[in-house]
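Hi support team,

I'm filing this because I wasn't sure whether my run with protoporphyrin IX containing FE finished correctly. The job status page said complete, but I'd like someone to confirm that the output block is well-formed before I use it downstream. Pasting the exact inputs I used:
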Amino acid sequence: MSSLAASDHPTVVTPAKVIQPAWVRTVHWINAVAIVLMIMSGWQIYNASPLFDFKFSSNITLGGWLGGALLWHFAAMWLLMVNGLVYLTLGFATGRFRKKLLPITPAGVLADTKAALTFKLSHDDLTRYNNVQKLLYAGIIVVGIVIVLSGLSIWKPVQLQYLTALFGGYDVARYVHFICMATICAFLVVHVALALLVPKSLRAMIIGR
Ligand code: HEM
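And here is everything the job wrote out:
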């Protein structure tokens, strides 16, 4: 007796494969909102005592003044931290980080960068990240952890003095915090551009399939 595959049978509809599970989509979009709130209120806080010779335009800051911006920053901080902890816990517990983000090899990154620059990188299988994606995602997760830890050390430099000392003191922690913010902004420019260039990846991050 011959057995039929679902695809051979005209009336059987195979459900589309889940590319991004619901928990990943939920934490991803909560994170995106929290990051935007953190960055815009952070720029307003920076303007009250700039580290460099420039200020951010008030058109792109949040909070109106230092006090208002601090309230936004600390409110969004809880969202970012709790959501980030859920992502890290589930990422390790479900094996997602191991399966999706590893291994990352220098040869793989080089080969995929070359393929991307010559428009030969395939986006057919959305369930697998290429080496450049893996590097960017693993890297931005580390930057996310460092920005939270450096933020905690400049928020509570007395209570968390060992953490602040780990960064080399309050002043260095401020620079580290700023550099992480700039790295996240640079990541976002590339990340959003790529999501728009490959709309089916954006669709999968919204509806899962
Ligand atoms: C409006 C802004 C954003 C858009 C449109 C967007 C879009 C996407 C899309 C489409 C994917 C799936 C990518 C793929 O298949 O290659 C993705 C994954 C990812 N995004 Fe975003 N994203 C945004 C904001 C952010 C932010 C702010 C961060 C962190 C700072 C971030 C970090 C990540 C990470 C780490 C992944 C991989 C998640 C995993 O597989 O566990 N995204 N994003």
